[in-house]
Structure formats: C-alpha cells, structure tokens
User: Which sequence fits this backbone?
C-alpha cells in the first residue's frame, strides 16, 4: 500500500502491518489481485466490514480515513467485477459513505453493483452519480429492498441518465413509508422515462414499487425503444386490467422478450389475463417464461391460457402456484395442450416443451396428479421427437388406420417407418412395438382386401418373371 500511502501522506494506520486493516484483503485490493473479482462491503457506523464470496469477514475497516482508503483501493482495481454494498441504518453519509464513494468513482472494472439497505442516506444517489457516469463497463445496477423517497428517486433518475452502458436495471421494494401511492408512482414514471436513454437495456425489474396505470403507460411508451429487452419483472405492484392492456400494446414491439413476471398483482381480472394471452397467440412471440403466481387465477383464466397455448411452441415455463383453486375443469384444458389424446396425430402434435407449475392451489385427483407428473417428466427430455413418440405409444394402444385409407397402400411404408423409428428410441420393448406394427398392417389389409390381393398378385408375377422357376398360377394358388 506504499503508493497510496505516500500519495495521501498517510501514517502507519494505512499499513496492513500496523494491524488497523487486519492483514491481507486491503493488500490484495492494492495489488489488484486478479483472483479477487467479487467483494461485499457493509458501511457501518465508524467504518466498514469487508468480506469475500464465502461470507467470512476478513477485515474491519475502522474510521473515516480507513473507509476513504478502501474506496480508493477499489477505485484502482481492474479485476473486481461485482460489488455488493449494504448500509447500516442511521449512518451519516458525510462521515462514511461520501469518502467511500469518492474513491469508488475512479473504478472502471465493476460491471455489476447491488445496493441493499432499509434506509439510504438522502444524498446517496447524487454521490453515486460520478461512478455511474464514468464507468463504461457498468451493465447491471440492482437496488434491493430499499426505502427510497421521491427526491432520491429523482436523483437516481438523473444518475441513470448519465450511464451509456447499462443493460440490466432492478428496483425492488422501493415503496417508502410516508409517501402516498401517487407520489411514489410519479417518481417511478420519471425513472422509467430516464431509461429511454438506454436502448441497449436487456433486463428491467421493478418490484414492490407501486407500478400502476401511469407507470404502465410510461412503460408502454418505452418499449418501442427497447426492442432488445429480454426480461421484464413487474411483480408485487398495483397493475390492473387497463395496465396489462397498456403493457401488451407496448410489448408487441419487444420481439426478443424471453421472460415476463407479473406475479402478485391481484387487481388483474379475467379481462387483463385475456389481453395478456394474446402474447402467447402471437406467432412471433419468443416468450419462454411466464410467472403469474399469487394473482387469484382460477379455472376460467386457466382455460383462457390453455386456449392461447394451443399453437405455442416457445413457452417452456408457466408458473401458476399460489393462485385460486384450479379444479378438473382447468386441468382438462391444460391436459389437452400437453397431450391431446383425441387421435394419435393430435397427441404427436401436442406441446412437448411446457413445464407447468400449479402448486398447492390445484385440487387434483390421484389419477390427475399421476398423469401430470408423467407429462412433466416427459417434457423435460431434450429430444422432443422422442417425447412425441412416447406420448403416442403411452396413450394409444391401437392406431386407427382408416383415416389413411384414402391414400391406399401408398402410405403404408410411412406407417411402418414410423414404428421402426419408435423402436429405435427404445420407449417400449420391441415386441410391443412389433405387435402394434402388425396390427396397423392388418387394418390396411382388412380395410382394402382387393388392393391387398392385387398387390400380392403383382408381387408374385414380378417374382415369376425374375426367378422363372414357378408359373404365376402356381404361385398364387
């Protein structure tokens, strides 16, 4: 630490050998240890606690001077990529926070920062702004379980406007005591409008933050500029039916959206869920995960989503736990999506990707639960052709070939080839598949005996011409 100490005119208090920094962690920071890539810093009254990934507190940083030196060491690091900061409630920003952030603002290596605390010093985001503005590698900022007032949200909005690299932003649990819903939502609206400066944004997470109609309007206006957004999490807010409709209008521009969370928005009714279901019906949708936990979803809404999923092959996970009771009516609709047993062809064309989570709110019979478990297990398999073959063989003992008779025997080689491919997957024993193959051939012969006889006669005649040993009449007698 000699370079920093000499520059700052520090005393032996800055030397790890003096005991004030309790050995190695600050030395590793000063030496820019390439193996030190993640750091947890808790700013407390009188200093800071610094720990590594395993959670073990390696050193206690004591005093304003030591905290300032810690910030400067972090500012010079080129290998730290993830920084987690928490702040003890009641901490004076001028004593501990300001010196730490003053040193941190020189850092250019941190690409992910998370702030967790119940109470943020009033000027925190104003002091953090230089770090956000000057770090071209900062791609993720997460503010978790923090109480933030309107003025602080305004400062945060200004800070975000200075960043040119942000790709993921999370604001969770920001509703502050003493703020009414409208004031808090208007601050959220201002924050959303600041994100227009970030067309490169890929992930947006605003949870437990009073997002209502006004914020949904702002989001709907924002989405056309965020056509690359992949993750949108809006759980625990005040979104209602009109809010969902606004979101859906905006999300029509987000062709890259892969994950959507609207959990714990109980004001949404069937009208809103019906609007949301149109995203699943869109042939251009790339949505893979939809989390709708804790919303009072019942049989009526389950049927709406099942219908929307009829031709959807992109959604792989639908989470519906902690909702209203779903009975056999809702399950029957989903069951038909997962495995339509009305015909072998319908079963083959069913959904072989979806993982459905119903949880304890599903009033399932033992048979329904067993079928559900079987289908979910099958859908986890990577080879979807194998899943399709398995569902057909498990749910159809005999195949009705009559619907294929219009093509005569021309289609029979395709039927036989299907069974041979099924045998190659080793879904059931070869004897069972062979039995079903013979049963299918028998249906063709029984259904079109004249063609079968003509076919045999033609084969015999060909054999006679090629072999020349037995007369045609003798072969067919």
Assistant:
């Amino acid at each position: 630490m000699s370079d920093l100490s000499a520059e700052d005119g520090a005393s032996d208090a800055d030397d790890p050998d003096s005991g004030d920094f309790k050995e190695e962690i600050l030395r590793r920071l000063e030496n820019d240890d390439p193996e030190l890539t993640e750091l947890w810093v808790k700013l407390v009254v009188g200093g800071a606690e610094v720990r590594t990934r395993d959670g073990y507190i390696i050193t206690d940083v004591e005093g304003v001077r030591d905290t300032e030196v810690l910030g400067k060491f972090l500012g010079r690091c080129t290998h730290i990529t993830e920084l987690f900061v928490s702040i003890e409630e009641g901490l004076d920003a001028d004593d501990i926070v300001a010196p730490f952030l003053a040193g941190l603002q020189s850092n250019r290596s941190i690409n992910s920062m998370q702030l967790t605390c119940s109470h943020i010093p009033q000027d925190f985001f104003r002091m953090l702004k230089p770090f956000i503005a000057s770090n071209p590698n900062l791609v993720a900022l997460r503010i978790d379980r923090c109480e933030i007032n309107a003025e602080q949200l305004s400062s945060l909005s200004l800070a975000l406007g200075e960043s040119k690299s942000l790709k993921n932003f999370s604001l969770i649990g920001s509703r502050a005591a003493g703020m009414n819903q409208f004031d808090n939502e208007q601050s959220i609206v201002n924050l959303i409008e600041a994100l227009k400066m970030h067309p490169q944004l890929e992930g947006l997470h605003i949870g437990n933050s009073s997002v209502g109609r006004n914020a949904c309007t702002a989001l709907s206006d924002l989405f056309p500029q965020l056509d690359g957004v992949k993750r949108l999490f809006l759980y625990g807010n005040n979104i209602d039916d009109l809010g969902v409709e606004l979101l859906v209008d905006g999300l029509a521009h987000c062709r890259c959206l892969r994950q959507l969370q609207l959990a714990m928005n109980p004001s949404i009714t069937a009208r809103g869920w019906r609007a949301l279901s149109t995203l699943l019906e869109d042939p251009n949708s790339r949505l893979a995960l939809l989390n709708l936990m804790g919303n009072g979803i019942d049989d009526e809404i389950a049927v709406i989503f099942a219908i929307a999923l009829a031709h959807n092959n992109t959604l792989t996970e639908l989470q519906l736990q902690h909702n209203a009771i779903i009975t056999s009516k809702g399950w029957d609709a989903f069951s038909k999506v997962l495995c339509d047993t009305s015909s072998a062809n319908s079963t083959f064309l069913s959904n072989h990707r979806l993982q459905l989570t119903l949880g304890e709110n599903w009033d399932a019979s033992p048979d329904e639960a067993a079928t559900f478990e079987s289908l979910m297990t099958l859908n986890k398999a990577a080879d979807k052709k194998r899943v399709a073959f398995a569902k057909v063989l498990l749910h159809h003992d005999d195949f009705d070939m009559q619907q294929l008779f219009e093509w005569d025997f021309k289609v029979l080689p395709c039927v036989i080839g299907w069974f041979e491919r099924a045998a190659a997957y080793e879904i059931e024993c070869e004897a069972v598949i062979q039995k079903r193959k013979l049963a299918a051939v028998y249906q063709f012969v029984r259904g079109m005996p004249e063609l079968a006889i003509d076919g045999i006669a033609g084969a015999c005649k060909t054999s006679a011409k090629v072999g020349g040993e037995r007369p045609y009449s003798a072969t067919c007698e």
In short: DSSP finds 19 helices and 13 strands in the chain. The chain has a mean pLDDT of 82.
